[in-house]
Amino acid sequence: MSDLRVGVAGVGVMGADHAERVARKTSGARLVAVSDADQSRAEVLAARLSEGLGVPSRNDAGRHSGGAAYGDGVRVVEDPLELIAADDIDAVILASPGSAHAEQLFACLDHGKPVLCEKPLTMDAASSLRVVEAEHKLGRQLIQVGFMRRFDPEYAALKQLLDSGDLGRTLVLHNVHRNKSAAPSFRSEMIVRDSMVHEVDVARWLFGAEITRITVRTPKPTSLVAEGVLDPQLAVFELANGAIADVEVFVNFQVGYEVRCEAVAERGSATIGLGSGVFTRAGEHWGGAMPADFRIRFEQAYDIEVQRWVDATRRGEIDGPSAWDGYAAAAVCEAGLESLSSGTPVDVALADRGKVLG
Ligand SMILES: NC(=O)C1=CN([C@@H]2O[C@H](COP(=O)(O)OP(=O)(O)OC[C@H]3O[C@@H](n4cnc5c(N)ncnc54)[C@H](O)[C@@H]3O)[C@@H](O)[C@H]2O)C=CC1
Ligand SMILES: O=C1[C@@H](O)[C@H](O)[C@@H](O)[C@H](O)[C@H]1O
Fold first, then answer.
1. In this predicted model, what pLDDT tens digit does every residue of 246-295 receive, in sequence order?
2. Does ligand 2 lie within 6 Å of residue 233's CB atom?
3. pLDDT in tens, 77-97
4. Cα angle, residue 146 at apex, residues 333 and 135 outer, rounded to 5°
5. What local confidence, expressed as pLDDT, does residue 132 receive?
């Protein structure tokens, strides 16, 4: 079977990481092209990743003729929509900002291109639902959403344990999600839509049930954020199966990246994210290191996610969170935003899955 020829749209923090992953760490795939609204960023990355192949990078004004042979280097395509349409690209990774996802996802569907779309699927529930419906109309699943925690070995082991029933029924999930710091432009709504959305997916996935109601409350914010930014945030999710999950999201924690999840079940509890790595006692100090960001903490999860996406795409399938999962998370976040401003519980308005996908 020939290698999957991949193009990456949006090569900032996450896209550059994924592009490098495809170019250097993923089997059965080859990075053909990258695109970014900031073309110089794409050019620098393409040059760096082409170096590994021992060939110069190219751009569309150069010698691209619609089909890149292996070892041709990584091409820069000015317009991300052109990258999606290109004949020599079999599948796309979207790591552009969430606000660009809807248009680019529709382009992927129009061109029949499988796509691994970073979270959030889109910026609101209505556009996410349109994406789900458009994919459903095609009759095959082309969209996988980048909820990478499902691929993290610790989360996967927790899921397996809970599903085994050894601890009885799971009652409650406690989550902590802390980033060292966030850009001043990272406003309160983004804490829900970009950060909390991971716990929304984790809760839906671990419980295998939809979230029906969300409450978001905020203490007096940390003094280290701009006026008006509500950080940290505490949320409670109520699920259709009667379970409850809570999460503290704090994106300007200052210390490091910390993601924890404790499941409380009828006959025991299980916790992940307590800090792996080497625990040392030296020089009057004891302890271990904390990862600086998600790229370090979840490196293995991203690697597994992308490898399994490539393998599944080559089989003509997806193997991970679907467009529906992206839509359901968007619907919860939308209710979460309403709750963030009212401080009261808000019911999640979710379309009837059977009717949409039936
Ligand atoms: N799964 C995860 O853990 C993470 C996921 N993400 C997601 O990845 C996506 C990108 O986030 P970051 O890399 O942190 O942002 P970023 O700001 O570092 O990178 C975004 C890049 O997209 C480019 N861009 C802007 N408009 C574009 C367009 N219309 N088409 C193509 N490129 C465009 C920008 O110039 C920039 O280089 C977001 O959806 C974000 O939520 C981000 C961090 C972690
Ligand atoms: O997805 C991510 C970022 O977009 C978000 O901004 C961070 O808070 C999350 O920890 C990270 O996983």
1. 999 999 999 999 999 999 999 999 999 987 556 677 778 777 788 899 99
2. no
3. 999 999 999 999 999 999 999
4. 80
5. 98
User: What is the rounded (10 degree) CA torsion for 346, 251, 148, 212?
Assistant: -10
| 322: DSSP letter | B
Q: Is the pLDDT of residue 326 over 70?
A: yes
Q: How far apart are CA 323 and CA 137, in angstroms?
A: 13
ipTM: 0.99
CATH topology of domain 4-148+301-322: Rossmann fold (3.40.50)
Residue 272 · residue 154 · CB < 8 Å: yes
Q: Compute, in angstroms, the gap from residue 294 CA to the centroid of ligand 2.
A: 7
Question: Ligand 2 center to residue 289 CA distance, Å?
Answer: 20
Ligand 1 pocket, residue 51 CB under 6 Å: no
Ligand 2 nearest-atom number relative to CA 197? 1
CB of residue 320 inside a 6 A radius of ligand 1: no
Is 41 a pocket residue for ligand 1 (Cβ < 6 Å)? yes
Distance CA 211, CA 253 (A): 27
- What DSSP string runs through 222-251? PTTS-TT---SEEEEEEETTS-EEEEEEET
Of 295, 306, 330, which Cα lies nearest the Cα of 101? 330
- Chain segment 32-81, per-residue pLDDT in tens: 999 999 999 999 999 999 986 655 556 654 444 333 333 469 999 999 99
pLDDT of residue 254: 95
Cα 195 to ligand 2 centroid, rounded to whole Å: 5
* In the chain, where the domains are located: 4-148+301-322, 150-293+328-357
- CATH number of 150-293+328-357, picked from 2.40.50.1020, 3.30.360.10, 3.40.50.2300, 3.40.630.30: 3.30.360.10
Residue with tokens 């990478």: 148
Report the run of H or E that residue 296 belongs to, with start and end: helix 294-297
Same topology between domain 4-148+301-322 and domain 150-293+328-357: no
The alpha carbon dihedral of 319, 314, 120, 24 has a sign of positive
